[in-house]
Amino acid sequence: MSWLNERFKALQERYPGTMERAVLRDPYGVYSLHIQRPNGGEYYFCAKAKTAGSMVSVHQSLLEGALMYHRGIIMAIGWDFYRFDPKPPVSWEK
Question: From the CB of residue 76, how many other CB atoms can be counted at a distance below 10 Å?
Fold first, then answer.
């Protein structure tokens, strides 16, 4: 079982009724799941076993999809879960 699937099962235990809607993959394999909460909220789910120092990375197309479709990202880092709500870039011009 992959780390992504293992952490998704843990998320489902914490939030029963959370469903997998689609698998996101690139030529190297699966990098995220498109998930739906029982209340209808849709998110992208990804998992990292650990951080690289103080940095955490996500696949570029995952971030682009989150911005385009206004979906948050649920990220498992180690044993914890975090939610990120990407917003479109801020325009400083008036």
Answer: 20
Domain total of the chain? 1
Which pTM was predicted?
0.87
Strand-pair category, 72-77 with 42-48: parallel
* CATH at residue 64: 3.40.1350.10
Residues of the chain with pLDDT under 50: none
94 within domain boundaries: no
Kindly state whether residue 52 falls inside one of the protein's structural domains: yes
Query: The dihedral of CA 59, 79, 5, 21: what is its sign?
Result: negative
Can you say whether the dihedral through the CA atoms of 14, 57, 48, 32 is positive or negative?
Answer: positive
pLDDT in tens, 81-94: 999 988 766 776 65
Q: How far apart are CA 54 and CA 56, in angstroms?
A: 7
Residue 8 is part of which domain span?
A: 3-84
